[in-house]
Amino acid sequence: MEKEMLDYVVEKNRELMKAPSCCSEAKEAAEAWLAAVGTENEEAETRRYMKELEEDIELIDGLIGFAGSEDGIQVFGAETAKSILDHAKEIKSAGGKYCDCEACSAVDAILKKKDAILGHA
Questions:
Q1: Among 109, 115, 100, which Cα is nearest to 9's?
Q2: Model pTM?
């Protein structure tokens, strides 16, 4: 992978790992990918990492469904769930496809470069 692309992905990878909303699977994949950079396992780990990120990014409709559900209210509390729901609806009405939490934003940034990343992996 070219240095500029690698630096970009490493930066977004670190943002993902630091995000409070990052799930354990994404964090493990991010750590494994970072450990594989520069090794013979980099290509395989990069492909695995991209696959995991695609599975973990939260579609806006999923967020709307969860935040508006009883489970969402139990997890976030009624007031926060309503706030998240309203925000998610704003994202959707503006044409957004994904949740905009720190983790999903980092994943989205990485996935937007997926073809270039995999083309160099």
A1: 109
A2: 0.89
